[in-house]
Design goal:
Length: 206
């Protein structure tokens, strides 16, 4: 019982830590920088976390149930997809900054984009997470619980970070000049991170 409880705590804590990994921060910072309020930032980050957690639970759970490992080529393919997605997000933010197309306060956030981004990130990490759950969990049920709590921790971590950063970022976006600088910085970060991430994944696939 104590081992299972410890595994649950570790799963939740690991998920929160997972939320601040570089590729996640690059994607979320780019999305959050395009929101006009802290509330919208939290909603976007939470939706990202939902897609991320669902993919971890579904794909990682299937691997855990089947006691299988994700093929290395497929895993690297998902990592490459993360790199491509970061490049696209960065390029879009830079385009908005260059053309002064800053987000408007009346614009309604669209939930499908952060959900899709979270799904891609979840696919990229599901194989490694399933292996981690298998080593830390004595039973199948506790392994699935570990996966669920890990995803919940990532969602909580991302929403919390977006809430803390959303208010000052929203204030910056109200000014034309600072808004362009913010979008340029986050877009460049995402673009550079995506190029490096994708190149590393592509080299591993060769």
């Amino acid at each position: 019982m104590w081992l299972t409880l410890l595994g649950c705590v570790l799963g939740l804590a690991s998920g929160v830590r997972h939320a601040i990994e570089p590729d996640h921060l690059a994607a979320i910072s780019t999305l959050v920088a395009q929101q006009r309020s802290a509330k919208d930032s939290v909603r976007f980050a939470g939706t990202w976390g939902l897609g991320h957690g669902l993919m971890l639970l579904v794909v990682g759970g299937m691997l855990l149930v089947l006691r299988a490992h994700m093929p290395r080529a497929l895993e690297e393919g998902f990592e490459l997809a993360v790199g491509v997605m970061l490049v696209v997000l960065g390029a879009r933010a830079l385009q908005q900054a260059l053309h002064s197309r800053l987000p408007h306060s009346h614009a309604r956030p669209h939930g499908l984009r952060p959900l899709a981004i979270g799904v891609v990130h979840g696919l990229a990490g599901s194989g490694a997470l399933a292996a981690l759950a298998a080593t830390r969990s004595p039973t199948l049920a506790s392994g699935l619980l570990f996966l669920g709590l890990y995803g919940a921790g990532a969602m909580i971590g991302m929403a919390s970070l977006a809430g803390l950063a959303g208010l000052p970022l929203a204030r910056l976006l109200r000014a034309e000049r600072s808004g362009r600088i913010l979008l340029t910085a986050t877009g460049a970060l995402s673009l550079l991170m995506g190029l490096g991430w994708g190149a590393a994944a592509a080299l591993r696939m060769i």
